[in-house]
Request: fold
Amino acid sequence: MFNLSQTPSIANQFIAELRDINVQSDRMRFRRNLERLGEILAYEVSKTLAYTPKSIATPLGEAEVALSDQKVVLATILRAGLPMHQGMLHYFDHAESAFVSAYRKHHKDGSFDVHVEYISCPDLTGKTLIIADPMLATGASMSLAIESLLEHGQPAAIHVVTAVAATAGVEHLQRVMPEAHLWVGAVDEELTAKSYIVPGLGDAGDLSYGEKVQE
Reply:
């Protein structure tokens, strides 16, 4: 697991603003900070790809540059993951995209089940799959989303990117998908009885796009 916050950097500012209730009311800034984390973590993930020297023609000669031939598929869980997805697309601009609609269906007793209702995905065979979602709480939505994506082929590698993860979610993902590489902005220890991350940052989807009506 790569934890961005373990090394002090400007990313701490973006994470702090995502958490700050005095800044969260600015939806455009909230989305942009998620994009920024997507960009930074995409750069970190890019260091793990394989690279081959290529000769590039310049106006004055030839330059040798190490470029990656690996095909990348960027996936996200709707709707909260869209800003991070866009940030990663800024760096992996030749990547294909996949989208999964996974959500919690709550019951009166406070429990919930995770449901997947929609998926759009290219063939993943032999490609690098990078799936982003701002919050990794229990890890149930993420693991179910990945299982749904894997019905479209076996990727060469799986990377999970998230802004804030709970320890329980990290442990769940490492247990059920030990082959997945995890990239996080920060890790929080606590989950509430309703499986919300504490201190966390709230509902990333609502903060990005407005409150939703839930049945």
About this structure: The first strand starts at residue 2 and ends at 3.
